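The authors assume throughout that readers already know how a fold can be written as discrete tokens. For illustration, here is how one protein appears when written out as sequence plus structure tokens.
>
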Amino acid sequence: MTIPTVEEIQDLHERYAPSRQALKTVYSHCEIVWRIAEQLIERSADVFDRDLVRAGCLLHDIGVYRLYREDGSIDQRNYVRHGVLGREILESEGFSEVLCRFCSCHTGVGLTSDDVIRQKLPLPPADYLAVTPEERIVMYADKFHSKTKPPKFLTADAYAIYVARFGDEKVDTFNLLRKSFGDPDVASLAETYSQAVELPVLGNRVG
């Protein structure tokens, strides 16, 4: 499997971004998720393919570009589709299944076929679950930064509050990830990027 370079991934973002502002929002988020994942990897006793994690972080949200309207706003109603839309982009570009899964399997703490059917989500019924160590750490790292306006960082406690609206099972899943990977130092990253660390507002998207 060939893993794309940072430069190749940047080029892909530039080709699919509908505007410079969309590129800045989405690609900056992806870079921040990589910085968070780097922290987690450094403190973990587990072995990861770092190049694969980097690529997964930088590619995971590329499907968001397909949700931008002409006025620059995002189609929030269909935001949950950004993972499968990203997968479609990577498949069309000839990327491997391993890389495509970073797009389709990072939403929330994982979506099951039951979630899709019960919540009537605009997705094909299937399990969209992070399985490999690399998939799981990308999904987890993504939970600590939001592309809201303005963008912000979230602590682990903040995300636990947010995900509770989806049920105790999702909280348990997040807590298991937290136990496995630990809490990132979002305060230092927030200072680096001049962004706030805030509690999520229930009802807003995260990641």
Q: What stands out?
A: DSSP finds ten helices and three strands in the chain. The mean pLDDT is 94.
